[in-house]
Amino acid sequence: MAVSQVVIFSLLALVGISSFLVMIGMYQKTEQVYDHALSVYRGLLLDAAQTSIHIMKVSVSAASLYVTVGNNGSVSLYQFPKFAVVVEYYANISGVAALSLSLYVYTAGTPSAYQWTSATGELFSGRSATFLIGLPYPPYALSQATVVIATNFGPEAVWSGTV
Amino acid sequence: MPGEAISEAILVIAGVVMIGILAGAIYVSLSYIGSAVDSSSLMGSQRLMTQVQVAFATNTTSTTVYVYLQNIGEEPVYNVPQGTLYFGPEGEEQPVGYGVTAPAWTSNALLLNPGYTATITLTLSQPLSKGSYYTVMYVTQNGVSTEYTFQVI
Fold first, then answer.
1. pTM of the model
2. Do B77 and B108 lie in a common domain?
């Protein structure tokens, strides 16, 4: 075989093998990115499927709302800052009922207006906890209210009634 | 013999040049394919890790609706106003523009990190009809959607 043929075939082989290796590298990188995303996605779905809460009791004392929440899921809930707590109620402002709808922010300490906390700490699976919500004004007597508690995994509990 | 050597040399040089051109073309093609595959896999994986839900939605007046949008995924929702909001009677939702002139919606958050909740205020030009069911749907920029239906009381 002539020298030129050997050189050309060698170079062609080199280019072919390099291209193949580059493509394998790209495929593996993509696979890693997708694998990571899929495992996160599966985790999110699993957490949501294993989470279930319900509101057992709601009571009020002045401008504090006590909400007893039951956890009938199989995971304990403790990432309270990632919860969404919404309260819609009629506030008693100088004897006049005014509709109040707001998102309440989690605090680890005693809640002031527009804040809430878990008075009994972590919400273990199969147990209940009391959430203390600081309302901006006391509720108007015997008025309708709605409390929404959405967990960090998605499932939520909604309570509607008279406070 | 010297003539043969010269021909060989010319063939080698021509071959090397041609293969160089071929390698360059393959390199450029692989670069394009690589960046397209990279961005595609990144977008796909971001979409898989994005999850939002409307935790609650209700009206406070006949033309004002509040929507609480919670990020329950692992990926931030960038530029909330760039998402698309649909609203209307159940099954007849229409897109609503972001802004202040009714019908329009505004959000108190531009960036919605995992675990955070944004408040969306929807101002309507026509009053809602009492007792009817309305649906609000939010679609993120990367195509993840959530919807919520409520009854006007």
1. 0.89
2. yes
The H-or-E segment that residue A33 falls in is helix A3-49
Q: B92 with B30, same domain? A: no
B115–A79 CB contact, under 8 Å: yes
Same domain assignment for residues B108 and B43: no
- Kindly list the residues from chain A whose CB atom is less than 8 angstroms away from the CB atom of residue B34: 22, 26
Q: What are phi and psi of B130, to 5 degrees?
A: -60, 140
Q: Distance between CA atoms of A153 and A44, rounded to whole angstroms?
A: 7
- Considering the domain architecture, whether residues B29 and B71 belong to the same structural domain is answered as no
Cα-Cα-Cα-Cα dihedral of A114, A119, A121, A122, to 10°? -70
Range of the domain at B41: 1-49
CA angle, residues A118, A121, A125, in degrees to nearest 5: 105
ipTM rounded to 2 decimals: 0.90
Question: Domain containing B98 — which CATH number?
Answer: 2.60.40
Bridge partners of B22, per DSSP, are none
Q: Are residues B75 and B113 in the same domain?
A: yes
| B117/A103 touch (CB, cutoff 8 Å), yes or no | yes
- Are residues B43 and B57 located together in one domain of the fold? no
Please report which helix (H) or strand (E) contains residue B19, including its range: helix B2-49
Count of domains for chain B: 2
Verify that B72 and B3 share a domain, yes or no: no
A48 contacts B72? CB cut-off 8 A: yes
pLDDT tens string B85-110? 999 999 999 999 999 888 999 999 99
- Per-residue model confidence as pLDDT tens digits over B30-87: 999 999 999 999 999 999 999 999 999 999 999 999 999 999 999 999 999 999 999 9
Question: Amino acid identity, residue B42?
Answer: L
Q: Where would I find the H helices in B50-149?
A: none
